[in-house]
Amino acid sequence: MLPKYATTDHVFTVPLVHGDAGDARTIEVFAREVVDPARAGEQLPWLLYLQGGPGGKSPRPVAGRPGWLPHALKTHRVLLLDQRGTGRSTPMTARAAAGFAEPAELAEHLGHFRADSIVADAEHIRRSLCGDQPWETLGQSYGGFLTLAYLSRAPEGLKACHVTGGLPGLEAGADEVYARTFPRVRDRVRDFYSRYPADAPVLRRLADVLREEDVRLPDGDRLTVRRLRTLGLMLGMGDGFERLHWLLDEACDADGLPTETFLQQVAGLTGFVDNPLFVLMQESIYATGGAATDWAAARALSRHPEFDEDADPLLLTGEMMFPWMFSDIRGLRPFAEAARLIAERTDWPPLYDLDRLASNTVPLAAVVYHDDMYVDAGLSLETVARVGAARAWVTNEWEHDGVNASGGRVLARLMDMNSGRA
To answer: Is the Cα dihedral 39, 44, 48, 49 positive or negative?
Structure first.
C-alpha cells in the first residue's frame, strides 16, 4: 500500500542579510516537499504554505493532518516551509541565544527575522525549485502578513494567494492593534465562563494560591498569576474552550493545590521552549517604521482595570507578550536584553508597499473570521478594500484555525474564489 504522502526534504543556504553583498553571514532554511504518491511524477503547480506565528515551524504531515493538506494535494505539490529561526531552519533557541557575546549582537541578528527576510528566503527557494515559474501561497494567520509583504516585494513570484485569518491592518501599529485586542479577549474569557461557569472559581482559587505559595513548575520556574493568565492564549482556537476546561478539570488536588499533572501541562503550554521567536517578535510584526513598539501590550493592559489580578472572575490574557516573561520564563531569559533592544528600536523598515498593493493584480482570496480573537476583522476588511484583486469571505462558522478544523472546506472555497468558481 502506498504511503499517504510522499515527502522530500530540502535545505537551502541563504544570506542572513539579503541584498548586502558585504555581509557574508548565512543561515540554513529547511522546507519539506509533500505530494500525493500517485502523482509524484507529474508536473504539478506548487503551493507554498506560510505558517502562522511569528516563530512557528511548519506542520509535520501526518495522515489527515493538517486538515487542509489532503485537499491541496489533489491538485498541487505542497512546500511546508520552516521560516528562518524555526524548526530545522537554523533554529533560534535559548541555547543559540546564549552563544552571542553581546545583547546588541543578538538583537541585530533577530532584526533579520521579520517578514521582509522570510519573503526573500521564499523567493530564493522558488527560484531554486521552480525557476521563473510563479507559485501559489497559503498563508495562515501570520502567514497572511507574510503574503502582503510578498505582494509588496516580489509579486512576480506569485500566481495566486490564499489567506486564512491573517490580513493585518496595513498601517495599524502595535498600540492600535492591542487597543482592539483586549476587549475581544475580555469577551472571549467571559464567553468561556458562560460555557463552563465552574471553571471561574477554579482559576480564581489557583490565582489566590499562587499569590500566597511558592509553586514551582517542573523546570524550576515559579508559577505566578501572570503566567497562569497566559493560558488564555488557547481560547481563540476552535477547540480552545474544551482544552482549557479539561486542563482545569485536573488542576487542583483535594487540598486545593495545583496538581503535578496540571503543572506539567502548564510548563509546556507557557514555556515557549520550541518557539521563543513567537514572544520575541510578536510586537515587531506591527512595527512599520519610525516608532518603537515599546511593550504596547503592557501599556494597553494598564488601561483595562477589568484585567486586574485581583478581579473576580479572573480574566486571562491572549496573544499578548509582556516584559516580565523574559525574567519569569526560563527559556526566554537568554533573550532578555535583546528583547528590550528590539522593543526600543525605531528604525524598522516598512513592511508593506501601499502603492504596489493598491495596484496588485495577483488574485488574493481571504477568509476573515468574524469572531477572530487574534486578528481584528475590522482591520482585515479595511485591508481588503485597499488591495487590488483581493476578495474576502467573512464567516463565523469557524475560529482562527478554521483552515484545519474545516477539513479542507475553507481552502477549497478560497481556491474556488481565486479561480472564479465562487
So the answer is: negative
Beta bridge partners of 365: 162, 391
Helix (H/G/I), strand (E/B), else coil: 367: strand
Q: Which residue has the cell 523546570?
A: 219
Catalytic residue among 76, 109, 112, 400: 400
What one-letter code names the amino acid at 137? T
371 is catalytic: no
Active site residue 245: no
Strands 364-369 vs 158-164: parallel, antiparallel or unpaired: parallel
Query: First-to-last CA distance in the chain?
Result: 36
**How far is the C-alpha of 140 from the C-alpha of 106, rounded, in Å?**
28
CB 166 within 8 A of CB 139: yes
23: its cell numbers: 555581509
Q: What is the pLDDT of residue 3?
A: 61
C-alpha closest to that of 140 among 243, 230, 56 = 56
Per residue in 207-223, pLDDT (tens digit) is: 999 999 999 999 999 99
**Which of 141, 152, 284, 406 is labelled catalytic?**
141
Residue 375 contacts residue 401 (beta carbons within 8 Å): no
Spatial contact of 186 and 235, defined as CB atoms under 8 Å apart: no
DSSP codes of every residue in 260-291: HHHHHHHHHHHS-SS-HHHHHTTGGGG--SSS
Tens digits of per-residue pLDDT, 167-221? 999 999 999 999 999 999 999 999 999 999 999 999 999 999 999 999 999 999 9
Identify whether the C-beta of residue 389 lies closer than 8 Å to the C-beta of residue 417. Answer: no
Give the number of other Cβ atoms within 10 Å of residue 404's Cβ. 21
For 313-343, the pLDDT digits (tens) are: 999 999 999 999 999 999 999 999 999 999 9
Active site residue 347: yes
> Do the beta carbons of residue 378 and residue 386 sit within 8 Å?
no
